[in-house]
Design brief:
The protein is mainly beta. The chain has one domain: Distorted Sandwich (Deoxyuridine 5'-Triphosphate Nucleotidohydrolase, Chain A). The protein has two helices and 13 strands; from the N terminus they run αββββββββαβββββ. The protein has a five-stranded antiparallel β-sheet with strand order 2-3-13-8-10. The longest helix has 10 residues. The N and C termini lie far apart (40 Å). The structure holds 2'-deoxycytidine-5'-triphosphate. 2'-deoxycytidine-5'-triphosphate binds next to β10 and β11.
């Protein structure tokens, strides 16, 4: 079951959901609106290798914002640290940003219970668009879990900002190669 916005607010008040700088104004019927953080990463190499940690170029979004270009992948982060030991969570774009051609989440929407971190956003744009740090850019939903709860304790535990792919930490065996 998905939590209603009011239940998200109640669970934040009870300390069972963590959302930095929680504001009632950003509570939505079934979600909570999060803001874009100030850091953007781009990969520096033309060809990315799954077993080599990628080199990144990091920049801060200035007061005038940052104009993103089509054809590039940008990694951003939610301004807020968010998550719960009691619920799973999923990330979505806002309809209003998505229909402007700003896509913030492609194929990694799931947050495990126990992951209480700023989330990394996979950002692409359809045409040049200026983005500002602090703009409400997406929404997080929380889901009650059925079955035994296991808290996430993985390679992104303890993240404090946008984090590039850590796929290179996979063992050779998990990639289907020789152990
Ligand atoms: N857009 C996203 C999606 C997820 N996460 C965080 C919350 C998740 O609980 C955590 C791990 O997500 P996955 O299980 O999808 O990641 P991996 O399988 O790559 O890593 P691990 O082996 O640590 O599970 O990363 C994030 O910061 N940004």
């Amino acid at each position: 079951m998905i939590l209603t916005g009011r239940e998200i607010a109640r669970e934040v008040a009870r300390g069972r959901i963590h959302i930095d700088d929680f504001e009632d104004a950003r509570v939505e019927p079934n979600s909570y609106g999060f803001r874009l953080g100030g850091t953007l990463l781009e990969y520096a190499d033309d060809v990315l290798e799954p077993d080599v940690p990628p080199r990144v170029v990091r920049r801060q979004i200035g007061e005038d914002g940052a104009v993103l270009q089509p054809g590039r992948l940008y990694l951003g982060a939610t301004a807020e640290c968010m998550g719960s030991d009691h619920y799973a969570a999923t990330l979505y774009a806002r309809r209003s940003t998505s229909t402007l051609g700003v896509w913030i989440q492609y194929s990694a929407p799931l947050g495990h219970c126990g992951a209480v971190i700023p989330w990394t956003l996979e950002i692409k744009v359809a045409q040049p668009v200026r983005l500002f740090a602090g703009m409400v850019i997406g929404k997080i939903a929380f889901w009650a879990m059925l079955g035994e709860h296991v808290r996430y304790n993985g390679r992104y535990t303890g993240s404090t900002d946008v984090v590039a792919s850590r796929l290179a930490l996979d063992s050779a065996a998990s990639r289907g190669g020789a152990p």
